[in-house]
Amino acid sequence: MGLERETEKISDKVLMTADDEWLRKRFGSTHILAIGSPASNLFTRELNECFLFRFAISVETKHKWNETRRILKGLRTPAALSRFKEESRADLRQTMRLFKQPGFLAFNFRNLKLGIDPAENRDFAVVSLGCNPFAAKDAPYFAILAAGVHHPGTAHAVKMLGEPLLFERHPFGGIIEVQVPSDEFNRDMVQWHEKIKDSKAVWHRAGAESLEYTPEEFLRRLGEWLPRVEKGEIVTDVALSADELKGHIALIELLAAAKFGEAVPTSAAGAG
Q1: Kind of pairing, strands 31-35 and 142-148?
Q2: 131: part of which helix (H) or strand (E)?
Q3: Strand partners of residue 179
Q4: pLDDT tens digits, the chain, 272 residues: what are they?
Q5: Residue 174 three-state SS
Q6: β partners of residue 209
Q7: Is 203 helix (H, G, I), strand (E, B) or coil?
Q8: Could you count the other beta carbons within 10 Å of the beta carbon of residue 223?
Q9: Taken in order 79, 80, 84, 87, is the CA torsion positive or negative?
Q10: Rounded Cα gap, residues 148 and 168, in angstroms
């Protein structure tokens, strides 16, 4: 991926154990790379709305997780946490399944929510720029999301980060479709342990519609969606707010203004 040698790997669990002040001090002056979907990565789950392209998390799912998080914050001892885990095992399993429901939010797509059709030989993923929620306003520190619905998608999303030319027509990222294995192979002839090696990622198309864009086009689309969201005209089961769109607009303006004179440290937030 071309990461600096100083890149630090950090468990996503710090989001649940550290206080806000510690998080701001620790992550407010660095870039963040989040690897993994909301079903497996707490950073992606908690801060999904920070990214310009993201998982389409439903209002129900977000509500259930917020309630679980509220309860967890009040449990101070290992015994209390263990007891809650045992008593809530079935409910927690169901909530995690809700995070796996397919679909993405793409503001450059005319229908906003981009549905996908999972199949045995297909996976999907998102690669996206986003704001660093721990940085001071107007500070030039950002976040990147690389996450698939399943493992092949995540692997290819991370791999794409090392190939900047692939982003010429998707400058802020987008949704990728992973052929497992590549369509050029007869999948019946490819052994299961070779499918990842022989897989291929392409930018997803919505039917015949290309989802390519320029920064100016993406910003314009955000400006078109914003008043509709403010007026409550968007009928969707996805958790969405005007503040999120305003944050995206501010992010793009910050990206346009940012000029780095030296390398900025990066923290990689992975599940574990």
Answers
A1: parallel
A2: strand 122-131
A3: 122, 200
A4: 555 666 778 888 788 778 889 999 999 999 999 999 998 888 999 899 999 999 999 888 888 888 888 887 777 677 877 788 788 888 878 777 777 777 899 999 999 998 887 777 788 999 999 999 999 988 999 999 999 998 888 999 999 999 999 999 999 999 999 877 666 666 676 666 666 776 688 999 888 788 999 999 999 999 999 999 999 998 888 989 999 999 999 999 999 887 544 444 556 666 65
A5: strand
A6: 206
A7: strand
A8: 11
A9: positive
A10: 21
Sign of the Cα torsion 157, 163, 164, 167 reads negative
User: 199, 181 in Cβ contact below 8 A?
Assistant: yes
Give the separation between CA 3 and CA 58, rounded to whole angstroms: 33
> Two tokens at 237?
């089961």
Among left, alpha and beta (phi > 0; psi -120 to 50; other), residue 112 is left
- What distance in Å separates the CA atoms of residue 176 and residue 157, rounded to the nearest whole number? 8
Q: Give the integer Cα–Cα distance in Å for 101 and 237.
A: 12
pTM above 0.70, yes or no: yes
Record the tokens describing residue 246, joined without a space: 């305003």
Q: Which amino acid is at 149?
A: V
Question: Phi/psi at 60 (nearest 5 deg)?
Answer: -60, -45
Instruction: Copy the structure tokens of residue 132.
Output: 């660093």
3-state class of 127 per DSSP? strand
Identity of the amino acid at 74: G
